[in-house]
Amino acid sequence: MSGSVTYMDIKTEIVGRIRRGDWPLDTIIPGEVELAAQLGCARATVNRALRELADEGVVERRRKAGTRVVAGQNRSARIDIPVIRTQIEAAGAHYRYELRKRKIVAARDPIRARLDLQSDQEVLSLECLHFAGDAPYQLEVRWINLAAVPAARDEPFEQIGPNEWLLREKPLTDAEHVMSAGNATKHQASALHIEERDAVFIVERRTWLGAETITWVRLVHVGATFQLRSRNLQQLETD
Amino acid sequence: MSGSVTYMDIKTEIVGRIRRGDWPLDTIIPGEVELAAQLGCARATVNRALRELADEGVVERRRKAGTRVVAGQNRSARIDIPVIRTQIEAAGAHYRYELRKRKIVAARDPIRARLDLQSDQEVLSLECLHFAGDAPYQLEVRWINLAAVPAARDEPFEQIGPNEWLLREKPLTDAEHVMSAGNATKHQASALHIEERDAVFIVERRTWLGAETITWVRLVHVGATFQLRSRNLQQLETD
DNA sequence: GAGTGGTCTAGACCACGGT
DNA sequence: CCGTGGTCTAGACCACTCC
Questions:
Q1: For chain B: N or C, fewer Cβ within 10 A?
Q2: C-alpha angle A146/A151/A154, rounded to 5°?
Q3: CB A96 within 8 A of CB A160
Q4: CB of residue A102 closer than 7 A to nucleic acid strand C?
Q5: Is B175 on the interface with A (CB under 8 A)?
Q6: pLDDT tens digits for B10-35?
């Protein structure tokens, strides 16, 4: 019996064959039934291995057509957008939060579109600053859809940031992130204690609960000190 | 029998319960066996649903301890780093490639460390420019580990960019991306036809084949026109 | 129409990790 | 120790899609 063949074994074996050149790009690899026979395991095990490889972008699968090698074509990466307090404290710095603005307004056009609102519904407009030690780290400009999150109307956001508050109060089902670079505006520069036109790294996030848009936020970071990292490990055995 | 319960049904149901507040943050939800009984399906089906939810960061699983709700804590997003030609052509623009520099050198320190080289091994240093129509779109500065990719020594890279060439020639098992914002250096500004200190969006990528580092590349984009997007859909039914 | 992946099931054994 | 998740199996039926 000698221990079963695991789905990890199969992934390693298949990536190995691709790597060795046995299965060049665009090759249609053998079907699940045949692989199961070759490798001496159940089809379900092969299926799990191939499903994960497809998920990682190594192969592409289509019914009837089979499984095709596309390794490397789809450069997809998984990034973690850090929770600000966690990130700052992980770096060993003291985290401080400051509310700069809090105002209930009728949604005008750029915001109305982003929150997907029909009429001039009320939204909560917030501006906050997050510090790492004494240095400003992130400027947060946020709009919250009050129709979706009525409880936000009574929350002062003086002790707790809207990010953490929303995480606690409101589950979410869906998120969109847009990352870009920009030159600091006068306003951003003065808030972040940098020079005007210094580079800033901007993350814009929209979140939904079902079909309802909850919030839109622009997170502005000092470009010189901020990075997003991703590492996709295949966890292959050494050979 | 009324059609089986699918793992998707289970995911929807569980996210629904979390959303409705039945299972607040940090709740330990029922075990697989019990859920299978409740929902009328096999344990394997529940397992698949929970495994995927864990993968998406909605819950956290530990043997013996059970499955805990952590929804929203881990903001992870999947982004696709576009293949430059595809991206430009998808936008309806003409793609043009230009080689600006090609040189074989002994790896000095910043590069040696990035490529994880032991001694002063030879590396291929390249600089290329990618155009969308007439406008420079991306400046590519790349080093290739010649020990790992000897064939690159004989490739002129005049007709084909190193990105596309490497994708064809060399599989990869692992990739790391670092994204940041910066102010254009004089060199970058002149290459990209922008002003010095204009914001640039920088993606740095390292790739590996097994334990061997293949290449390190810095991709510099005009900040005002470049974005990375991600959208994590939960694909829940409307309710 | 027929072949391939997509999924469910029922049962089994294993491995990790709280107690 | 022993409960929980982690995985494998063997078999079955279904759904998509290419021919």
A1: N
A2: 100
A3: no
A4: no
A5: yes
A6: 999 998 898 888 998 889 999 999 99
- The model's pLDDT over B134-192, given as tens digits with 9 standing for 90+, comes to 999 999 999 999 999 999 999 999 999 999 899 878 777 778 899 999 999 999 999 99
D strand bases under 7 Å from protein CB: 2-12, 15-18
pLDDT at site B237 = 44
B192 near B222, Cβ under 8 Å?
Answer: yes
Q: Name, in order, each residue with C-beta under 8 angstroms of A137's C-beta and a sequence gap of 6 or more.
A: A84, A88, A130, A131, A221, A222, A225
List Cα–Cα distances, B65 to A97, A239, B10, B27, B51, in angstroms: 34, 35, 21, 12, 15
Strand arrangement, sheet containing B212-222: A228-232, B174-183, B199-209, B212-222, B135-145, B122-132, B95-106
B170 CB neighbours strand D below 7 A: no
SS (H, E, C) chain A: CCCCCCHHHHHHHHHHHHHHCCCCCCCEECCHHHHHHHHCCCHHHHHHHHHHHHHCCCEEEECCCEEEECCCCCEEEEEEECCHHHHHHHCCCCEEEEEEEEEEEECCHHHHHHCCCCCCCEEEEEEEEEEECCEEEEEEEEEEECCCCHHHHHCCCCCCCHHHHHHHHCCCCEEEEEEEEEECCHHHHHHHCCCCCCEEEEEEEEEEECCEEEEEEEEEEEHHHCCEEEEECCCCCCC
C-alpha dist (Å) from residue B187 to A88, B132, B182, B190: 33, 20, 13, 5
| B174: region left, alpha or beta (phi > 0 left; psi from -120 to 50 alpha) | beta
pTM above 0.90, yes or no: no
Q: Which of residues 39-58 of B touch A (CB under 8 A)?
A: none
How big is chain A, counted in residues? 239
Please count the CA atoms within 13 angstroms of the CA of A46 that sit on its side-chain side: 18
Q: In terms of Cα–Cα distance, which of B90, B122, B95, B94 is closest to B106?
A: B122
- How many CA atoms within 13 Å lie on the side-chain side of B95? 15
Is the shortest CB-to-strand distance from A57 to strand C under 7 Å? Answer: no
The H or E element spanning position B144 is strand B135-145
Dihedral sign for Cα A128, A131, A135, A138, please. negative
Q: Which of B177, B200, B238 sits opposite A181 (nearest CB)?
A: B200
- Sorted by sequence, the CB contacts under 8 Å of residue B163 that are 6+ apart come out as B83, B84, B140, B217
Q: Which two tokens stand for residue A120?
A: 């001039």
A198 in reach of chain B (CB within 8 A)? yes
Task: Provide the positions of strand C that have an atom within 7 A of a protein CB.
Answer: 2-12, 15-18
Contact flag A178-B223 (C-beta cutoff 8 Å): no
